[in-house]
User: Fold this.
Amino acid sequence: MINQEHGVNPRVLMAIEQEKKSLSQLNVDGIVALIESGQVERAVGHAFHFSSIELIHLTFTKVKKVIEEGTSGSLINYVSYSILMAIGLESALIKWNIQLIFTASEIKDLHLSYASLVASVPKTHNVSTSLIASYGQEVYHRYITEARSENEAKEGKETVLRGSLIDYVNMMIKEVHESSLYLYEMKLSGSPVDATTVWGNDYGLFLQFAMWCGASFQTTNPPLVKAAWDTYADDWKERVTEVYKSLDFSTLNSGNMDESQKKVSVLSYTIVEKSCHLVRDMYLASEGKLGFVCYQVNPNHQNDTNLMVDEIRFVHEMMSSRLQHGYEPNISFKIPGTKAALEAAQIVGKDGISITVTLSFGVFQGSEFAKVLSKSTSAVSSVVVMNGRLAFPVRDDLVEKFPLGKETYLESSKLVGVDVTKHLYEKMYGPKEKGGLGVDPKRVRIMNASLRIYGDEIPDVLSIWGTPSITIFPNVRYALNHKERTYLSDAVTKSVDDSTRALNAKSEIFRQSWWVEGDEASLAPKEKLTLKGNTPEEIITWGPIEATQTQFLGSYQATKDLIGFLG
Assistant:
């Protein structure tokens, strides 16, 4: 029976319900078929989101038999499955399903059973050597992205290469248990869907590790797509070629996109798709509220509604065609905070397609998009506040204007993104009778991004906890572990003190980002930007938007330069 939540597109709900029903009917042979075919992550996802006690035990028995016999041509898949189960059973993934059907001691026993299976594979076996080499390289790249030193990254890799598969399992469990975000997640009770703040992985790789720590979605953008490509270029080239050849372009609605634009879309989509499969079961279990991956449309089209809509529909149909039975894609499409994108959000929102608004730095953008997205029929949409990409320009502006007060402004500007988030939170979610928009935070989320680290302080996380969602770059996630952290579910509702706001308000950039019509006149910018009252050029050339858009355009062009291998 479909949970017909008011406002969510019936087509989306029906597709999710049908896929969930199909998954609920999987027996052990169906799970084994997933493992055999290389869909190991989906087999693991089923255990953590949809399997019964009986099915989990039957699957373990079958996997154990195959590993003990050691003759299967797909042995590496069964060992990979066992590794992911052994780690996952000691991670935040248990909250989705397993914690509800097993006792704590039963979960521990199941973990030990899978750990024993992993330990039984000799270190000298070709399966071990292959997996250890892959895991070692992944640890190296993740450590670099977490802003660890080159020496630490090399040592992490060498530790994996020197050890066995069970050593790797224990190493990952140790790192997960040291995660500040994991510790927070495991203190919460209830379904992950009900969490006040949900968080995601702000990168194109390492989603599995983030999921173990409690992440439930992933964001990407042109620079992150390019970074993911550069890390595993040969692998991505092979995978993109496979996806490209699998598509029947005559059946896909690409509107006015040219051939090069379609090829860049396929490349970017391929990187997004891999992560989509990892969180697919979260998406289904949450009925579309979580478990999505963001795909950013061509940044060259920031002022072209039709081309944004064309690309969204093209990629949406692309994933639908590659999913069994044309199920609903678990993608949220990133569009910029421009007037043209506002119109695009209105168009695709009627189809139940999720939107995430990026290049968003001000309450004047967020509040306008919130009005549109509140009428969307998607399960969830988001308005980004790019904290650090706003705070740094304000900081630089203040220090340039007031060099003698440099230290004071370095301190106050740390809270620029925080203050704008709190103000947007008040405007979006406050009751209409008190001047708010009365938006549902479960359906239209503020998504905080571009977080910054200030020594040991990370106000872009801790001072706004309680905001509906935060996407966290690996270096910030790792930095959160450096000391004990307190996550307050109402931190976002606590105002920034007036003296800090007064200091930051000496910058016109801050005033423009913070102020909207109805706020006190003393904080208004000299020239008030609005999406509907200014030209597209005036919006896109506003300092924070222009700087970020320039980077996005450069990364998109660099990605476009890669597509020659597609012919």
